[in-house]
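>> Question from a student workshop board

For tomorrow's exercise we were told to take the sequence and the ligand below, predict the bound structure, and bring the output to class. My setup keeps failing. Could a helper post the expected result so I can at least see what it should look like? The ligand is shikimate-3-phosphate.
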Amino acid sequence: MTIYLIGFMGSGKSTVGKVLGGRIRGGHADTDVFIDAQYGTISEIFRIHGENTFRKYESAALENLSAEHEIVSTGGGIVERQKNISLMKANGVIVYLQTAFTEIQSRLMHDTERPLWNTDMEKKEKLFRRRSQLYQGCADIAIQTDQKTPDDIAGEIQEAV
Ligand code: S3P
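>> Workshop helper replied:
Here is what the output should look like for this input. Compare the format with yours to find the bug.
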C-alpha cells in the first residue's frame, strides 16, 4: 500500500513526504523530482512542450514510483487526470494536505518555478477553487496543515492511515 500526498502547490507535499519517509520503511519519492531527473526542469517542459506533455510525464512518473515506494508526493495537478486518481485509489491511500489560499500565497510569494502559479491573481484563485473540489472528491483522508509543522502533519498521517 502506498500513501499518496496530494494538494495544491505549496501545501507541503514534498516536505511532509520526506519527513514521513524518515519514519516509515519503504521509502519516499516525488513525482516532480522524478520528472526533473528524467525529462528536464518543469519550467522548461511547460515552456517548450506545453502542459499536456507535462501531464503525460507526470502520469508516467506516478506509475513508475507507485510500484516501488510507500510514500509518494505528487504534483498539485495530479488530479487533472482521472487515470491518475484511479491508480492512486487502487494502489493505496490518498491523503489531502489542505492549506488556506492565503497561506499558499505567502509561501509562494517569491516562487518563479511553478508555471501555473506565475499568472494573475484571478487565475490562481480560480485554479485553487477548482482544484480544491478535485482534491476533496478523491481523498481518503484530509489533513489541515495551517499552523502545523511538517513533523506534526507527518504524525497525524501516521495515526490516520
Ligand atoms: C503543478 C504543480 C507543481 C508541478 C507543476 C504543475 C500544478 O508541483 O507539478 O508546476 O499543476 O499544480 P507542486 O504541487 O509540488 O508545486
